Amino acid sequence: MSIPADFDLKERVRASVDIVDVIGSTLELHPAGRNFVARCPWHNDRRPSLTINQERQSWKCWVCDIGGDIFSYVMQRDGVDFPTALRSLAEQAGIEMDDFRGGKKSKPGSPDDRATLLSAMRLVADAYYEQLENGTSDDAKLARDYLADRGIDNENRERFRIGFAPESWTFAVDLLAKNNFSGEVAEAAGLAIPRNNGGFYDRFRGRLMFPIHDLQDRPISLGGRVIPALLEKRGTDAGGAKYINGPETMLFRKSHQLYGLQLAREAIRRSGEALVMEGYTDVVAARQAGVETSVAVLGTALGEQHVKLLKRFSQRVVLVLDGDTAGQTRADQVLDLFVRADVDLRVLTLPEGSDPADFLGSKGREAFDALVAAAPDALEHKMLRLTDGVDLTNDTHRVTQAIESLLEIVAQVPQNSTGATNLKVDQLMLRMARTFGITNDRLNQRLEQIRRANSEKQQRTQQTKAFIAKAKQERQEPGKPLLDPNDAFAQAGDLESEYGISSHGDFLPTAMVAEAAPDRPVPLSGIDRELFETLIESPALAAIAIETIDPDWLESYTAKMLLTAYQDLDLEGRDLDVDTLLLVLENETLKNEVVTLEERVRRRQGHSTQTPEERYATVILCYHQKQKAQEKIQQIAKLESLLLAEDEEEALLKELFDTERTRHNIEAN
């Protein structure tokens, strides 16, 4: 990797935004010597254990073993990737990212300017809120009455900023025009639709409005619900769909957003559980009943990106579905997510004819909590559905169909998955064996047959990818690092950025295929940790280490990534100090490792009897000794293999003996 074009942007953002201000905007900070402390939001912190160092612009919670710089804090707080955190902080600092992209700059006030769309969306969302809160029209009163009939009180109406879109074709368009927003901006924000003969009209009319917020609590889209009394007043059923969501825009992607997550995330963290519902009013009603962990999908099924987002806050996700046929169908669709995602995904189907709002209103919180606690996981739910009304002993055809359906889903799990995922697959197979009365060995045989069939379909694609990976390695420039420290631990496909900041990790170079990155980077230890503590303490040694250290000497993949980052900085002529190292790293786990190393160096100052140069020399000596030991093991393995000719064996024995004599300072006669 070479330093991306956005390095200067990261540097300017870090210099423009104080980490104390960012963390202090959501947590109560207390001075503690030269630092600040706060209660850590990621564990049940009874005394402040989150330390913020304003001088170094870093943070650390030693209990959770997480930390880093201002970017990794926003990533951890909001559950977002690095490009999103960078964009959020740049907007907070008033820095135009386009100035650093080398591309076309968005003009303020234009439809392709993100800040303009955010301002337009907030203006209209606030206006809809005012219409519901203080509107004097009969329609506004009907909207308030409907919410009251649904049991939604004023406190939650305000908490969720629920509004009302008047029965007007141009309420939002006219409001935006008065505030110097063009019709094109209204369309780009998802608030207006172009007319065939020119001009624009409002997308939402005569509906309850539910603003959709991002994790920074900014309205990025709107959803509208019909009001039955207004339809009756019109004397028509031409009100359109019950719910209408805003379209996909620069601000809003429905597959990446969940309604109410900005309000629920802290409760989800504390409880370790997220409840995913189907509608806005379900979430509002649940919150009013005291269920603070509820969120909702936005006009789409629960998807892989939703699960990845929720995993940042909790490992248990409960999909709460209405007790109708559509709800049962949606439950079937999430089983593949349960198998592939490292998350405890459960399915709660409510009694027939009820939704969460109805159930909570009639049965109460205690009954709802009992159903949530007893919710089966997705596999059990699927098996119950497939075997409902089936004679497992005599209905051979339907039993076979059920088994094939389940095995097809299990076969999608990559065979090089994590240990936890493999254990889950083993458990699933055992449960299937018990349910269907078939031996586990027989099920595994059929699973392998399905996997082989799937593998044959993908073989040509895999061969092509391997060829491309090899060609990329052969074209690698001399002296250029082969690894990208930010891509090594990224999940493929997670980090696409509209600002051109991406993770390039298509394939690992051929030389590294056998040493794939672990699912979670392990903390540095032993000689690797001593090396990087020395480089952080004395950046001048980093330039020497880049030329001296062979990446194969390093014991962990984390160490290889950090060395690669130093190589990148050196190639670009950047400083090799810890601040610059943190800037080039975008992976939050690597950032945490650097801050941990830096803190260890600080605590050791004044207590070490050796200079950094002396410790570095000792580290290099240890690496050399380790390499010699490995070479000896390889030589002995060759002797034991019995594949060497007599003269080769004699030469190898002499080499081993000479090496040992040198090591023990024995002089030959």
Automatic annotation (TrEMBL):
The record's note on quaternary structure and interaction partners says:
Monomer. Interacts with DnaB.
Tell me which family the UniProt entry assigns to this protein: Belongs to the DnaG primase family.
Q: What is this protein called?
A: DNA primase
| Zinc-finger ranges (CHC2-type) | 40-64
Q: What is the lineage of its organism?
A: Bacteria, Pseudomonadati, Planctomycetota, Planctomycetia, Pirellulales
Q: Which UniProt keywords apply?
A: DNA replication, DNA-binding, DNA-directed RNA polymerase, Magnesium, Metal-binding, Nucleotidyltransferase, Primosome, Transcription, Transferase, Zinc, Zinc-finger
Described by its record, this protein's role is as follows: RNA polymerase that catalyzes the synthesis of short RNA molecules used as primers for DNA polymerase during DNA replication.
**Can you quote the domain comment?**
Contains an N-terminal zinc-binding domain, a central core domain that contains the primase activity, and a C-terminal DnaB-binding domain.
Example GO biological process = DNA replication, synthesis of primer
**Broadest EC class assigned to this enzyme:** transferase
Keyword Transit peptide part of the UniProt annotation: no
Q: Which GO terms describe its cellular component?
A: cytoplasm; DNA-directed RNA polymerase complex; primosome complex
Which PANTHER family does the record associate with it? DNA PRIMASE
Query: Per its UniProt record, what HAMAP family does this chain match?
Result: DNA_primase_DnaG
Do you know which InterPro entries this protein is assigned to? DNA_primase_core_N_sf, DNA_primase_DnaG, DNA_primase_Znf_CHC2, DnaG_bac, DNAG_N, DnaG_primase, TOPRIM_DnaG_bac, TOPRIM_dom
Enumerate the catalysed reactions: ssDNA + n NTP = ssDNA/pppN(pN)n-1 hybrid + (n-1) diphosphate
PROSITE patterns per the UniProt record, alphabetical: TOPRIM (PS50880)
Gene Ontology MF terms in the entry: DNA binding; DNA-directed RNA polymerase activity; zinc ion binding
- Show where the Toprim domain sits: 272-353
Which species?
Answer: Novipirellula aureliae
Tell me which EC number(s) this protein carries.
Answer: 2.7.7.101
Q: How is the cofactor bound?
A: Binds 1 zinc ion per monomer.
**Cofactor(s) required, per the database record:** Zn(2+)
